[in-house]
Specification:
Blueprint (H helix, E strand, L loop, with lengths): L4 E5 L6 H9 L7 H6 L6 E6 L5 E6 L7 H8 L4 E7 L6 H12 L4 E7 L6 H15 L9 E3 L8 H14 L11 E9 L3 E7 L4 E3 L3 E5 L3 E10 L2 E2 L2 E3 L3 E6 L12 E3 L6 E11 L7 E2 L2 E7 L2 E9 L5 E2 L4 E13 L5 E6 L5 E9 L10 H12 L2 H10 L5 E2 L3 H5 L3 H13 L3 E4 L3 E4 H21 L6 E2 H8 L5 H13 L3 E4 L2 E4 L8 H17 L6 H8 L3 H13 L3 E5 L2 E4 H18 L2 E2 H8 L3 H13 L3 E4 L2 E4 L2
Parallel strand pairs: 1-3, 1-4, 4-5, 5-6
Antiparallel strand pairs: 2-3, 7-8, 7-15, 8-14, 9-13, 10-11, 10-15, 11-12, 11-14, 16-21, 16-23, 17-20, 18-19, 18-22, 19-21, 22-23, 24-26, 25-26, 27-29, 28-29, 30-31, 32-34, 33-34
The site of guanosine-5'-diphosphate has 19 residues, from helix 1.
Length: 633
């Protein structure tokens, strides 16, 4: 199912919050102060069930310019905007400012609601609609439907829902194969649970139990609880509003603006390189080294902007490469959109796209730096390889890369080498390439799955391989999985043996009762020698149920105390060693051995002598030649 976030926008008092309540039945104003003053201060949330059953998350933002910072935090995760204009007031300053912010954030899709139509004459409303249409010209909302509603009279609400549904169905799907990313918008404590954060999952999938890093704080933790729209879930997909209960994190350690991602995917940074566009409506040119507020994700970061084009200022409407240096650390990634506001007065002046999230300090006007940034903006072979691999959570065979990335093989190879050297791409056995974040996600997932398995089945030597493959994800094809297993084994993360895998260092631990049972079972098998007892006989003898005996036999086999000759037929390793010695001696003097010869030597019967020799064939100690056996090699 598609997951989409609808965000409100528009001037204060134009009826955004009331409209959300009319659409969803939820009052998104959750603070006491908001309800007392009848004004939205911080972002609020609701869930909208659309006529086709899709549930969209709604983020309601404050319209008052004093709380624009909160609007920016809410706008960062929006797919579809619901622009609200009061029919009795028409376009006002924050209508324009919000629209500009949404354009800078590259929102592509939306619906306009003319509210409070019960307060205005029809002719007046017609004029307002014209005014609105004029303001939308040249923007992503140029062709958006404009719907007339009255939240108070309950008019036009169903038509608005249908228009929203159609916008939602047009919204681009978010990238689910990227590592998950969650900018935090709220942090609070739930008694009995501990710290809970909420936010819009902007990329990837988050699962219960996933390892998480909080950036820039660099806190490593785990998803202990996960909710979407107030329902417990085991997995949340990008485009959902989620609440995450984090293990062992104090509420004071995190705040709005932090981001959650799998460990190692995001690094805290103090600077970013970007392409910046200054709004035509910016009140004055932007000076080199001007102090600004940069809004990225849910964060507001104070810092200075250096113009890299060797200018002393950038004119309104201008665009160029810049380096932003924060006064504090923050989280960002290449391709992130951001909005810039002047330090004072706090007006929105522009915005841009991050081209490098961990840049070096540059000399102003250096042609090399400008060329490198231009290449990053355009997309070099390296970029294309990196972004292609980022879209492949289970890697890609090297030979498929050029075609998938739309590159020539000759330009692909140097790009791969550079990315490997830069620690962004890894080659795995079987000539398979992985983006490092994707690989780290899988490694964490494998480790978590194995840990969980060992905890649940402490007596089993390991997890069936197929189960581990399933735990990694539906898309893990056998070739990718084989490549990963070899890689993890080489890295000593796990040991792969036969049909099972276990974490390196995992050992079956027995309690006193189990140790005693294993000893009694050993005693029975040792005493019976070649006359291997049936399972029922063993159970009777040691007075234990079959599953307990079988579990101990598995443990014993893992430890080399038992061997399995056939389904249900076990021998003590000492018995086998003894028989092997007998057969070896016999073969040394006779060259060949028959079933009858072994039977006589062991004073047993044909059945057991045959069983043992067949086992020896199986382990390639002997080889059958007609009715006789010879040494295998
Ligand atoms: N008459 C009328 N009043 C409305 C309508 N929608 C909202 N209001 C009123 O307008 C005021 C501001 O609404 P609110 O939803 O808080 O605006 P917001 O600041 O955009 O969230 C409140 O007093 C609402 O009761 C409407 O459709 N008709
Ligand atoms: Mg409001």
């Amino acid at each position: 199912m598609k997951h989409v976030i609808i965000g409100t926008a528009g001037h204060v008092d134009h009826g955004k919050t009331t409209l959300i309540q009319a659409l969803t039945g939820t009052n998104p104003d959750r603070l006491k102060e908001e309800q007392e003053r009848g004004m939205t201060i911080d972002i609020g949330f609701a869930a909208l069930r659309l006529p086709d059953g899709t549930v969209a998350g709604i983020v309601d933002v404050p319209g008052h310019e004093r709380f624009l910072k909160n609007m920016l935090a809410g706008a960062s995760g929006v797919d579809v905007v619901l622009l609200v204009v009061a029919a009795d007031e028409s376009v006002m300053p924050q209508t324009v400012e919000h629209l500009e912010i949404l354009r800078l954030l590259d929102v592509k899709n939306g619906v306009v609601a003319l509210t409070k139509t019960d307060m205005a004459e029809k002719e007046w409303t017609d004029a307002v609609e014209e005014d609105v249409r004029a303001h939308l010209q040249g923007t992503f909302l140029a062709d958006a439907p404009i719907l007339r509603v009255s939240a108070v009279a309950g008019k036009g609400i169903d038509a608005l829902k249908r228009a929203l549904q159609s916008a939602v169905s047009r919204a681009e799907a978010r990238n689910l194969s990227l590592p998950f990313r969650l900018p935090v918008d709220r942090v609070f404590t739930r008694p009995g649970f501990g710290t809970v954060i909420t936010g819009t999952l902007v990329a990837g999938k988050m699962r219960l139990g996933d390892a998480v890093e909080i950036v820039p704080q660099k806190i490593q933790t785990r998803v202990r609880g996960l909710q979407v729209h107030g329902q417990k879930v085991t997995e949340a997909e990008a485009g959902s509003r989620v609440a995450v209960n984090l293990a062992g994190v104090e509420t004071e350690e995190i705040a709005r603006g932090a981001q959650l991602a799998p460990p190692g995917v995001l690094a805290p940074t103090r600077a970013l390189d970007a392409v910046l566009r200054l709004l035509l409506t910016a009140p004055r040119p932007l000076k080199d080294r001007a102090r600004v507020r940069l809004h990225l994700g849910t964060a507001e970061i104070l810092g200075r902007i250096r113009l890299l084009n060797a200018q002393t200022e950038m004119e309104p409407g201008g665009r160029g490469y810049v380096q932003f240096s924060g006064e504090t650390e923050f989280a960002c990634a290449r391709g992130d959109r951001f909005v810039v506001r002047a330090y004072s007065p706090m007006t929105t002046i522009g915005g841009g796209i991050v081209l490098d999230a961990a840049p070096a300090r540059h000399r102003n006007g250096s042609p090399e730096v400008l060329a490198a940034l231009a290449a990053k903006e355009r997309g070099t072979p390296e970029d294309l390889v990196e972004t292609t691999l980022a879209r492949c959570p289970f890697g890609l065979p090297k030979k498929e890369l050029p075609a998938t990335a739309g590159l020539l093989p000759a330009e692909t190879e140097p790009a791969i080498q550079a990315l490997i050297a830069g620690g962004k791409v890894a080659t795995l056995p079987g000539e398979r390439l992985f983006a490092l974040p994707a690989l780290n996600t899988l490694t964490d997932r494998a480790r978590a799955a194995l840990e969980a398995y060992h905890t649940q089945f402490p007596l089993r030597p390991g997890m069936p391989k197929e189960e581990l493959r399933a735990a990694l994800g539906r898309e893990a094809d056998p070739r990718a999985f084989a490549s990963l297993l070899t890689y993890w084994q080489e890295r000593s993360l796990l040991v792969s043996e036969g049909a099972t895998v276990r974490l390196t260092g995992f050992q079956v631990e027995l309690n006193e009762r189990q140790k005693a049972l294993l000893e009694r079972i050993e005693h029975v098998y040792r005493a019976d020698g070649i006359f291997s007892p049936t399972l029922e006989e063993v159970c009777r003898e040691v007075k234990a149920p079959p599953d307990a005996v079988e579990a101990m036999l598995r443990v014993g086999m893992e430890r080399g105390q038992f061997v399995k000759a056939q389904e249900g037929v076990y021998y003590h390793a000492d018995t086998i060693a003894h028989l092997q010695q007998l057969v070896r001696d016999y073969l040394q003097s006779h060259g060949t051995i028959t079933v009858g010869a072994l039977r006589d030597m062991t004073q047993s019967n044909r059945k057991f002598a045959l069983l043992v020799l067949e086992y020896f064939d199986q382990i390639r100690f002997t080889r059958r030649q007609g009715d006789e056996r010879v040494l295998f090699s």
